[in-house]
Amino acid sequence: MNVKITGTGSYIPSNIEKNEDFHNHEFLNADGSSIKAPSEVIVKKFKAITGIDERRYAKSHLNTSDIASFAAEKAIENANINREDLDYIIVAHNYGDVRHDSQQSDTVPSVASRVKHLLRIKSPKCVAYDLLFGCPGWVEGVIQANAFISSGIAKKCLIIGAETLSRVIDPYDRDSMIYSDGAGAVVIEATEDEGGIISHETATYALDEAHFIFFGETNNPEIKDNRRYIKMYGRKIYEFALTNVPLAMKSCLDKSGYNITDVKKILIHQANEKMDEAIVKRFYQLHEMDMPEGIMPMSIGKLGNSSVATVPTLYDLILNGGMVRQEINTGDVIIFASVGAGMNINAIVYKQ
């Protein structure tokens, strides 16, 4: 028996926020002081570092649970299964349902229970729960589902990554331009077909790194409300990721029994184009190789960083012809990898 992805789906919001839309923003340093550069210059430098031209925001009437259910519907249809046969629904997110213009995250009931409700699944034996694991949440959900199926506890699982980060960004923080909204989902099943999940690796670094990404106050000292926003220490994250993610990927590949030359694609969390490129280059340097051209598909330029949604969305896009000059074929060995708040790292070697 193998554990394979049998269906994929994604939801990409229709609202496009372009870089030019930030030209009128007032960006401030973390201490509230002014940044000594025009917004146009800040945005141009941001593009050079992150590779982001535009990002997607959910319409105001939609919440994380809504867009998660949209992606899930597509994955269920693509897998051609009866939704009542699902044993688990695992929803990775970080902030729950944050209604438009709200100051509070809503996680009761869980996003997973809300998704199950929206999917109109009747069976009480379909267990729905949330997974908070930073940006690597969807990858970790796949790892957990693999454990359920491999142990005989489950046969079919639905794993979703969904987030509406546009609801938790500080408009005075230039880092806010990174974040976006979106959802991606997969159905995973026990199958006699070849391939599937070959190996996986997970690590949590929390001694010194736990608060590299955190919830903090606005950069504008004149605003006195109690609202909190997603914040990060970008340089520390970059250095941490560059040191630790390639090692985790190598460990995962070593456990798989495959050679580095067998890897056809690396689907890495779309966090920052320069950082992702540096991570994958370092991974190949560990094998005394140059990074092959086209090995690392990137969607961040048009979709931004939607946290837990980036990897499953990228995977779905490639499988359905949504990425120019990118494809994944039957028998291909690929790597899923992510890094994010916690600080958490994970990777999966998967054979299509």
TrEMBL record:
SUPFAM superfamilies: Thiolase-like (SSF53901). Residues 253-351 form the Beta-ketoacyl-[acyl-carrier-protein] synthase III C-terminal domain. Coiled coil: none annotated. It holds the Pfam family ACP_syn_III_C. Residues 129-203 form the Beta-ketoacyl-[acyl-carrier-protein] synthase III N-terminal domain. Keywords: Acyltransferase, Transferase. One of its GO terms (molecular function) is 3-oxoacyl-[acyl-carrier-protein] synthase activity. This is 3-oxoacyl-[acyl-carrier-protein] synthase-3. It comes from Hyunsoonleella jejuensis.
